[in-house]
């Protein structure tokens, strides 16, 4: 509807009618009243649009869902309680026990654990590949029960930029849904649907909120996958006896998100609270201003620490010479790679501890991607459940320090990190 993503960040999703609140209001109500049972029946039959119970939909979440739909260029979206629930629901919408899917291994540690342990226990087999695996090696893992391919646009914390061309070509060839986690890039830096993704998931907890106030997740239907007649997706092509015998493929462009909402999340109930939807929507209003600043601060920092004697290596896709630099230029807006910079500190775990203790501006938090700069050592925190082999497979070596570069002044950011690196050598 709008020409620029900047305007969509500010305006998309909610437009008040005459005399209504200018700002998307918080509708803190679990339920909605109707005059006749027939009207409510039509809502249940999806014959009429409207709200009846906040576990299914809510006007505040709806405003946020419309905004992210516009930003990602999809056909519909659903706001959920966390990034983890977004990924879980996306997979469960497509797959059940006995099915399998393919995922790159360099993904967020929580997602890796979900795929490697929890979904396996439910009978859904994840087959891991590398972002650099050959097409042939990936194709060998595909069979008639393969229901999805999962990638992460910019992997947290490995910093790998997904090879969209390769994965979307395979997904198209085999008629498989391609899902990407677009949390770190956000739609300001990458629009995966234009690169062949069919479903986009977000931890909105990160840059979309941007201020570390609200845990949340978003699932966007790209509206660009034909479920009708595709034998991989009986769940979409056979009458669903858990939803009035509806054949979801008949819903058309929004088939995926409709099934995700009316079957999977109706049953799981991982819903985003209206207050969090309000805060996330407010955060996105400045996303287009924050992402370039996160990216320029991060690039300046990456360049500066790359030559520091306490640093073994730096991983940041916008750095010239980085293994992902070409992909960053190809897939990320102006080659900007957001605010997450990883580096290997000399001195292993001890060096990592000294460095973190000496930081003043960067605080140690289990978080990334808000306005404030922060730091984490994954091997001793988020990824501590992984073995050394799993750590290596996930692209998270033991000496990896993850910096989330905020939108403070560049001079302060550089000074804080440099002084702490100096201290780590003492
Ligand atoms: N995906 C990515 C890339 C993440 O970084 C995270 C959390 O750090 C998640 C998913 C999980 O999101 P949440 O913490 O909102 O459940």
Can you tell me about this structure?
- By secondary structure, this protein is of the alpha/beta class.
- The chain has helices at residues 5-11, 37-44, 59-72, 83-94, 109-121, 135-139, 164-174, 186-189, 234-237, 255-268, 274-284, 287-305, 325-331, 348-358, 388-393, 410-424, and strands at residues 76-80, 100-104, 125-129, 146-152, 177-181, 199-203, 217-221, 311-315, 340-345, 363-364, 374-376, 400-404.
- It has 16 helices and twelve strands.
- A seven-stranded mixed β-sheet has the order 1-7-6-5-4-2-3, with helices on both faces.
- Helix 3 (59-72) packs parallel to helix 11 (274-284) and helix 14 crosses helix 16.
- The termini are far apart.
- Bound molecules: pyridoxal-5'-phosphate.
- Residues 82-84, 108, 110-111, 152, 156, 181, 183-184, 203, 205-206, 215, 217 line the site of pyridoxal-5'-phosphate.
Helix content: 25-40%
Placed side by side, the strands forming the largest sheet appear as 1-7-6-5-4-2-3
The description of the largest β-sheet is:
7 strands, mixed
State the end-to-end CA separation: 57 Å
Total count of domains? 2
CATH class type of the largest domain: Alpha Beta
The set of bound ligands, ions and cofactors reads: pyridoxal-5'-phosphate
The low-confidence parts are none
Q: How many distinct helices?
A: 16
